[in-house]
Amino acid sequence: MIKLIAIDLDGTLLNSEKKIPKENISAIQAAAQAGVKIVLCTGRPKSGIVPYFEQLGLTDEEYIIMNNGCSIYNTKNWELMSYAQITNEELDQLQAAVRDFPEVCLTLTGEKHYYAVSDVVPELVQYDAGLVFDTAKAISLEAIKDSSEIIFQAMYMAKAPVLNPFQAAKEVDLAADFSVVRSQPYIFEAMPKGYTKATALKALSEKLGFSPDDVMAIGDAANDLEMLQFATHSVAMGNATDEVKEICRYQTTVNDQAGVAKAIYDYVLKD
Questions:
Q1: Which of 192, 225, 240 is the last residue of a domain?
Q2: What is the DSSP-derived secondary structure letter of residue 202?
């Protein structure tokens, strides 16, 4: 019996217009009313999640895994339950990686703000910040290090023709000390070593007394792979990458056809 559903946002819960199909909302509410825990699992920061969670209309305490597994919040009072953070020494290392790539912007996701380590915020970075209902702030690395704000993750941003050679040159070195993933054509992410959506989902499942057999996970992209491998009931979106589809037990329809709702009705509420 499935007791917890872990759901990615972009490309999964959200359609291509970045909206939640009403069918997904109805299915999630039906699952919650049946006693199933709903856990949104995303690379987004808090600012980019709360408005969507509120649309779901869930009244029980649920949980959200943010920043690709670097933070877990409960939804009753938005308490930060657990987190991993990037240290000042790691910030220096992350900044050093872009010294020979001036067109690649190092961005940082903190507990309170979205930062561009730059004199000005590049247009692409501000566009991405807008997708999570935030405004990026230009800041120096020294100012970040002098602050007390928790920094959960880093993202290198540039258009794909610029980001591709950066990733080719730096991925191996960065992967030695960070968990890395190319989550979007214009984003290469670096998280504290060992932290993914799966590590957070495993910790939360154990806290709630659930095993992988009790968990269904739904996703579409590279940053969902470990989470899908953890859950016994793994579901690939119809629009998922081939890599995701290859490892999943099930496949549902695309995000523009409310694939999350279909998966919930097919595998959770089928009885």
A1: 192
A2: H
